[in-house]
Design brief:
The protein is of the alpha/beta class. The chain has 9 helices and 12 strands. An 8-stranded mixed β-sheet has the order 5-4-3-2-1-10-11-12, sandwiched between helices.
Length: about 270
């Protein structure tokens, strides 16, 4: 699996130079930002925010972010207009001025609310674990849980969810368990919807992510003939390329923005 950014930089810049549209879509936590003790502390670096905004203004480039976070939470953390957004692991989408939520997701709320409450009722026995509530699902975080309590917690949550297995998708995240309704929507379908909404061919797609719920989007990127980029030491097996951490991705995007901006202002600029 290639792990150096110069290869990707050359590939992306050359693709854009040929007149193709680039669709650049990223996970948020662990990809654009480092993993931290609490999701509310995962602030987007201002320099990277400026780079994403810069890329989004380049002709024939679309930028999107798809996360397990709720859509409103994600948009608030990123703080940029003119991007595509997908929240709740792809269940919520904001395309060009339009918010899309499948009706099946709304029907799942009563079950998810009951399971969220049941999960919370078990956590006092696991000091350091907590539940992150989302519009259409929840995540059990145990990053601060004592190591010898992790497996008992995972087993108890598995027992709680098992009777509802047909109605749920459960993802193992970095020291977290993510629960969403089992409908035919995920980060892969979100990526395909974003690509379709850009409405231009030919197109080269890049998706970057670090955890299990990114696998469908990495697979979709590869199936679309694009770049499936894993972030971190153990990205999903679907990744065809890898960068070691979010800082390396930020460096790649900064170089790409500088390269494309220089091309636009120099001789031989393509419009």
């Amino acid at each position: 699996m290639p792990s150096t950014s110069p290869t990707l930089l050359r590939q992306l810049a050359a693709t854009h130079e040929r007149g193709e549209r680039l669709v650049l879509v990223f996970d948020y936590d662990g990809t654009l930002t480092p993993l931290v003790a609490h999701p509310r502390l995962a602030h987007l670096d201002p320099a990277l925010r400026a780079v994403l905004a810069q890329l989004a203004t380049v002709p024939r480039i679309a930028v999107g972010i798809v996360s397990g976070r709720g859509l409103d939470d994600l948009i608030g953390m990123v703080g940029l207009e003119g991007l595509y957004y997908g929240g709740s692991t792809g269940l919520e989408l904001e395309l060009t001025g339009e918010r899309l939520i499948p009706s099946e997701v709304l029907y799942s709320r009563p079950l998810l609310d009951r399971l969220t409450a049941a999960t919370e009722s078990r956590l006092p026995a696991y000091s350091g674990a907590w539940v992150e509530k989302k519009p259409f699902g929840f995540t059990v975080h145990y990053r601060q849980l004592a190591p010898d309590r992790i497996e008992p917690l995972r087993a108890e949550i598995a027992d709680l969810l098992q009777p509802h297995g047909a109605s749920l998708h459960v993802f193992d995240g970095p020291l977290a368990i993510e629960v969403v309704p089992a409908i035919e929507r995920d980060k892969g379908t979100a990526l395909r919807a974003i690509v379709a909404d850009t409405g231009a061919e030919p197109v080269t797609v890049l998706y970057a992510g670090d955890s299990a719920n990114d696998a469908p989007a990495l697979i979709a990127a590869a199936e679309l003939g694009g770049i499936a980029l894993g972030i971190g030491p153990e990205p999903p097996a679907a990744a065809r390329y890898r960068l070691p951490d979010p800082a390396a991705l930020a460096a790649l995007l900064t170089e790409l923005a500088d390269t494309l901006t220089a091309t636009r202002s120099g001789v031989g600029t393509h419009s």
